[in-house]
Design brief:
The protein is mainly α. The protein is 80% helix and 0% strand. It has a single domain, classed as Growth Hormone, Chain: A (Up-down Bundle), CATH 1.20.1250. The radius of gyration is 22 Å and the shape is globular.
C-alpha cells in the first residue's frame, strides 16, 4: 500500500532525471534489499497429516491434496474459480494504466502517478478500515459487497471521458479502498475454515491458479486494447467483478462458507488417511 503511494511519483521524478538503465539498477538493488532478510527469518512449518500416496512430501502430492480438498468443498472451489476469473479479466486492466494515462487522458508520467498513487492511498486506507471495523458479522458478505463496489469503480474508469481525469483518479482510489477489504475478508475465511496443515497447500493452489491467469489475461488484453481502446478492458474487468460478487449471493454454498462447511471435507480426507495407514501398516 505505502509503496504504491510513494513509488509512482518517485518513479515519475526518476524518469525525468535518470536514464532507464539506472532506474532498472535501482529496481534490482531494492529487490535484493527486500529479499535478503528472508534468509534470516525462521518460518514455522505446522505438522501435516499424511495421505496414502505420500511418502516424501512433493509438490505434485501437495497439489493433488489441495485439489482434492477444494473439489470436495464447494464454497472454496467457488473462491478458487472466482479468483482465477478476476485475475484473467480484471487484473490486466491495472497493467494498462500507463496506456490509459497517455493514450486516453493525453498525459504522461505524472498523470499515471496520480492514478497509481490514488489506488495506493485507497489500499492503505481500506486495509486500515477493515482492521478497525472488522467487517460485517458474515465475512463473506463484507468481501462480496466490497468486490461489487470495486468492480463498479473499475468499470467507472472504463467510461470516464478524457476530460475528467480526476473522476478516474477518484474511481481508482475507490477500487484501491475496496480490494483489501475483499482480500482481507476472504483470506480470513480461509484461515478460519481450512485446517492449519492444509492452509499452505490451499493458499498455494489459490495463488498459483490466480497468478497463472494473469499472463493469459495480458495476452488477450493487449490486442483488445489496441483494437477497441484501452478503456474497454476496464469495463470488462469491472463488469466481471460485479457479476462474480452478485452471483455469490445466490449460491448457498458460498453464503454458508463460514459455517464450518469444510469440516466434512476434513473428515473425508482424514478417513482417506486412516484407510491408507491401515493398508500400509496392519499392526
Amino acid at each position: 500500500g505505502l509503496a504504491n503511494i510513494t513509488a509512482p511519483p518517485l518513479g515519475a521524478f526518476l524518469l525525468e532525471i535518470l536514464p532507464m538503465q539506472n532506474i532498472l539498477a535501482i529496481d534490482v538493488a531494492t529487490a535484493i534489499i527486500a529479499i535478503t532478510p528472508l534468509f534470516f527469518i525462521p518460518i514455522p512449518r505446522p505438522l501435516r497429516a499424511g495421505t496414502p500416496e505420500e511418502g516424501q512430501p512433493s509438490a505434485l502430492a501437495d497439489l493433488r491434496a489441495a485439489l482434492r480438498y477444494m473439489w470436495a468443498w464447494k464454497g472454496g472451489m467457488f473462491l478458487l474459480i472466482g479468483a482465477m476469473m478476476i485475475n484473467l479479466l480484471a487484473i490486466p486492466a491495472f497493467s494498462l494504466l500507463p496506456i490509459l494515462a497517455t493514450n486516453h487522458f493525453g498525459g504522461g508520467a505524472y498523470e499515471f502517478a496520480w492514478l497509481q498513487s490514488a489506488m495506493g492511498i485507497g489500499t492503505v486506507l481500506g486495509g486500515l478500515t477493515l482492521g478497525v471495523w472488522g467487517g460485517f458479522k458474515k465475512r463473506i458478505v463484507t468481501g462480496m459487497l466490497a468486490l461489487i463496489l470495486a468492480g463498479i469503480s473499475i468499470a467507472t474508469v472504463g467510461i470516464t471521458p478524457a476530460t475528467l481525469l480526476m473522476l478516474a483518479v477518484a474511481a481508482m482510489f475507490s477500487a484501491g479502498f475496496m480490494l483489501p477489504i475483499t482480500n482481507g475478508s476472504l483470506f480470513a475465511i480461509l484461515q478460519t475454515t481450512v485446517p492449519p496443515d492444509m492452509q499452505g497447500r490451499v493458499f498455494t493452489l489459490l495463488m498459483s491458479g490466480a497468478t497463472a491467469m494473469t499472463p493469459l489475461g495480458l495476452a488477450i488484453a493487449g490486442p483488445v486494447a489496441d483494437s477497441l481502446g484501452v478503456q474497454v478492458w476496464f469495463l470488462v474487468g469491472g463488469i466481471a467483478m460485479i457479476a462474480i460478487g452478485i452471483t455469490a449471493f445466490f449460491v448457498p454454498a458460498i453464503m454458508r462458507i463460514e459455517e464450518k462447511t469444510s469440516q466434512n471435507t476434513t473428515s473425508h480426507l482424514n478417513e482417506r488417511t486412516m484407510d491408507g495407514a491401515d493398508h500400509r501398516d496392519p499392526t
